[in-house]
Amino acid sequence: MLVVKSIPAFNDNYIWLIHNKQGQCAVVDPGDATPVLSYLEEHQLELTTILVTHHHADHIGGVSELKRAFPNTMIVGPKNDAVAGLTHSVDAGQQLDLFGERFLVLGLPGHTLGHIGYLGDGKLFCGDVLFSAGCGRVFEGTPAQMWQSLQKLAALPVETKVYSAHEYTSSNLSFAMAIEPGNPQLQIYREKVNQLRAHQKPTLPTTIEQEKWINPFLRVEIPEVVNSVSHRTEDLSPQGVFTALRKWKDGF
């Protein structure tokens, strides 16, 4: 099993650091090199791999500086997303080896057209697609694409740990409570999240199982969720409910 640590960046980003017992490590979506370099120096780790999920600046801003500090670093990223400086462009369905564990590349368009995720060792690094109690905005793709990407993630084993790139859980839960106030699991989870954040602890990783209990974007067939958007859309199919939820959340 690989060890994963969170490196906070900016206001609410997490740069995920994955390391083995030999002092080698990878980082996921390093938007800022400074906290990564500090962590590596403090813990005497060698950076060998950078994994990128998509091209937004808060996910790739530190890549070039890290490459200068560790010239032999392999930089892996989406083939169909505009990420400069990649040494390995990967597409959905490809696999890569990371410290003896096999990771599968998942195509997850919607937030950006070429967004990908990395799945291996019971862990999912999904960038800005799935958040705890929420999902990413649809910037370049379509709601249908984002819906299909979320369906792909919902089909993963329930014990899969989900490493999202942002600490959005508290604000997402406010929206989730407005959508499904009768969900007791939401109330329990909100208390847990409030305690964690009061002590400045991360709410991530979450799990696919947890998200199926509390995330409205994965619960679009639950009657209370459907009813919550029935005045906003005539399309009450799962994809239609998702689309109405996402539009509502954009202005929430």
TrEMBL record:
**If you read the UniProt record, what top EC class would you report for this enzyme, in one word?**
hydrolase
SMART domains, alphabetized: Lactamase_B
Keyword Metal-binding attributed? yes
Pathway in which the depicted protein is active: Secondary metabolite metabolism; methylglyoxal degradation; (R)-lactate from methylglyoxal: step 2/2
Biological process terms from the Gene Ontology for this record are: methylglyoxal catabolic process to D-lactate via S-lactoyl-glutathione
What are the record keywords, sorted? Hydrolase, Metal-binding, Zinc
Q: CDD domains, alphabetically? A: hydroxyacylglutathione_hydrolase_MBL-fold
Q: What is its EC number?
A: 3.1.2.6
Cofactor(s) named in the record: Zn(2+)
Task: Cite the Metallo-beta-lactamase domain residue spans from the record.
Answer: 12-166
Provide the binding site for Zn(2+) 2: 58-59, 128, 166
Give the protein family: Belongs to the metallo-beta-lactamase superfamily. Glyoxalase II family.
Q: Which PANTHER family match?
A: HYDROXYACYLGLUTATHIONE HYDROLASE, HYDROXYACYLGLUTATHIONE HYDROLASE GLOB
- Report what the protein is called: Hydroxyacylglutathione hydrolase
Question: Which organism is the protein's source?
Answer: Vibrio inusitatus NBRC 102082
Q: Which gene encodes it?
A: gloB
